[in-house]
């Protein structure tokens, strides 16, 4: 309950705007529990990110074909985690005051290079920018739902939008070969 409340608060207000007293109130616990169990707001923020990484392991499997991997993210992306990632990018300067709630980027690039060698992705595509493009494709309907509505006429949170968007993402991934 505490991690869910923290995710709500962080996704709504970002790290800087989130308050431990608000998180504790949402969870119905004493705010001292945050310090006791997580060492404070930064530790709680890291724990939220770690929770996403654990969930990610449940819907991704090693060796999963790239098109299935992209579809798995489309089906399982947590809009709150996506908003948290966007908040992280909105900070005026990137500092190391707290860790980003995402996985190891070096591993992602290495994995994409292996996929290129296996023929899943065109060799001329830079894996770093391919990852950015795929992440962007996943984040845009969440970060800018007004654009998604205006361009498609669909609510980006609706099952109809998700169904059509997943088909589109599959078509896009197919063209990356």
Shape: globular
Number of helices: 10
Number of strands: 0
Class of secondary structure makeup: mainly alpha
State the separation between the terminal residues, measured CA to CA: 43 Å
What's the story with the biggest beta sheet? none
Please report which band the strand proportion falls in: under 5%, 5-15%, 15-25%, 25-35%, 35-45% or over 45%: under 5%
What's the overall average pLDDT, rounded? Answer: 90
What proportion of the residues is helical, as a percent range? over 70%
Instruction: Report Rg.
Output: 18 Å
Elements, N to C (H/E):
HHHHHHHHHH
Q: Which regions have little confidence, pLDDT < 50, spanning 5+ residues? A: 98-102
Descriptive overview:
The protein is mainly alpha-helical and 177 residues long. Helices cover 72% and strands 0% of the residues. Helix 1 packs antiparallel against helix 2, helix 1 packs parallel to helix 6 and helix 8 crosses helix 9.
The gist of it:
This protein has 177 residues and is mainly alpha-helical. Helix content is 72%, strand content 0%. The protein has helices at 2-17, 20-27, 32-38, 41-59, 66-76, 79-90, 105-117, 127-143, 145-152, 159-174.
Topology overview:
Elements: H1 2-17, H2 20-27, H3 32-38, H4 41-59, H5 66-76, H6 79-90, H7 105-117, H8 127-143, H9 145-152, H10 159-174
Helix pairs in contact: 1-2, 1-4, 1-6, 3-4, 5-10, 8-9
List keywords for this structure.
single chain; 177 residues; mainly alpha
